[in-house]
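Input.
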Amino acid sequence: MAAGVLTIEDDPDIRLLLRTMLGREGYSVSEAQTGREGLRAFHETRPDVVILDLGLPDLDGWQVLERIRDMSDAPVLVLTARSSEADKVRGLNAGADDYLTKPFSHVELLARLQAIRRRRPVPAPARPSFDDGRIRVDFVRWQAYLDDTPVELTPVEYRLLSALVRHAGQVLSADQLVQMAWDEHAGLGPERVKYAVLRLRRKLGWESATSPLRTVRGFGYRYEPLR
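Output.
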């Protein structure tokens, strides 16, 4: 069965080039020209590899990478004109498996795709939801439920909750939660996380001393699963 590649790229010429080149190599290619289209296509096609441009016209490529990493461990190759060392480091730290700058060699791109697929075998489908009998988080619909009643959360609150339940029983530092829950990381620190956690507890009715969303003083925060 052909490996599936999703290209998220706003330049039609580059999309055509990638579609032609990858098709000749036996890949099954799906495409998106905006970040939001890319996320929808990712949900629908569950590709084996994603080729992601950073300069997208709606959602920034960093945001798209963050959403993909929130949903899946699928390999991501960033393909972009941004060639600074700082951007490369940021991309790799944000969860990209490789970073290639434009203009690029066709041979090199194919070799890098093959290399990241060897390093990261095709994963099992991402877990679609978390449910411990206390709370249910639907990672596909981006919705949290208490006793089957939807809870209205902001995007940051939802991503914060998702990060905590995905790592249930583990302590996550404020810095880790900033990376996982916020679109813009610059200037954000422990106080911002503290108040976001307080708001999240309030919306979930977890303000008592028995709250499963625990503060681990000096280290960070932990969600204690019910089972």
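The mean pLDDT is 87.
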